[in-house]
Amino acid sequence: MEGEVRNEERVSGKRGGSSSKYLTFSLANEEYGIGILRIKEIIGMLPITLIPRTPHYVKGVINLRGKVIPVVDMRLKFGMEAVDATERTCIIVVEISGNNKTVLTGIVVDSVSEVLNIKSEDIEPTPSFGSKLNTDFIMGMAKTEGGVKILLDIDKVLNVNEVIALEKAA
Question: What domains appear along the chain, each with residue ranges and CATH number?
């Protein structure tokens, strides 16, 4: 599913209503989903320019058709072990919103799986893991035939002010 997401797949990416579409991807054999409206493009790995003094999970920036876009390694962002890129590793360009601003950011994932239409009744609230764990970035847990997909609130995974600071550093 390389290239831009087709318009007919751009259905509500927010919870509520009867169903929503999510792009699912894998990280370390776990499946995650992001609302399809937040996905701008899926691309193969490109040369990444390193930016000094950025957080460890920031891979650097890419030049995407003349626009400089910060790239975050989702494995490192989530505290997982770093791995070498494979032929399935790709960058998902997502739109991050907050504070009346919108920015594009690339997220590196192990592989893109599929676009799923998930009914609101199949989305469970995030389980409580105790007061010391912050799970605000998880929108919910989607029950699917293949198991459970962790639905992410991309605006809480990546902070818009943090991304703007990365763009300025480039």
Answer: 7-169 (2.40.50.180)
End-to-end CA distance of the chain: 29
pLDDT value, residue 130: 60
Task: Residue 72: count other Cβ atoms within 10 Å of its Cβ.
Answer: 24
Which class for 61: exposed (0-12), middle (13-18), buried (19 or more C-beta within 10 A)? buried
Spatial separation of the C-alpha atoms in residues 150 and 24, rounded to whole Å:
9
Instruction: Retrieve residue 52's tokens.
Output: 């000094």
Block mean pLDDT (10 aa), the chain, length 170: 40 53 95 96 95 92 94 95 95 91 94 92 77 73 88 88 69
Residue 116 neighbours by CB distance under 10 Å: 21
What gap in Å lies between CA 99 and CA 170, rounded to an integer? Answer: 21
Beta strands 19-27 and 58-64 are unpaired
Distance separating alpha carbons of residues 23 and 9, to the nearest angstrom: 10
Per-residue confidence (pLDDT) for residue 15, from 0 to 100: 41
Which residues, other chains included, contact 145 with Cβ-Cβ below 8 Å and sequence gap of 6+?
A: none
Residue 1's SS3 state is: coil
Given this model, what pLDDT does residue 9 score? 36
